[in-house]
Design goal:
five-stranded mixed sheet; 2 helices; alpha+beta; YaeB-like fold; globular; 81 residues
Length: 81
């Protein structure tokens, strides 16, 4: 089982979203504890290494040995800039 860790910037990103989107995102991120499941893609030439798609939002994260580190939660139009 993986531990979920939010960076401070990801927390600010999440708190700025509507409540309905926040709950959907938290549900999907919580599912990452049991392994990399969902609409996940490994990014090439981009840091952090992975993205999880939740509707119009992208969760950018990395996987450490025993934890998932969430760096940003952004709208898709802003995620890869």
């Amino acid at each position: 089982m993986l531990k979920i860790e939010f960076k401070p910037r990801a927390g600010k990103d999440l708190s700025s979203l509507p409540a309905a989107d926040q709950s959907r995102i938290l549900q999907k991120v919580g599912m990452l504890q049991h392994g990399l499941t969902g609409d996940i893609k490994r990014l090439t030439n981009f840091t952090p290494e992975y993205r999880l798609r939740v509707g119009d939002y992208r969760i950018l994260f990395e996987v450490d040995e025993d934890s998932v580190i969430v760096y940003r939660i952004l709208h898709r139009r802003d995620a890869y800039r």
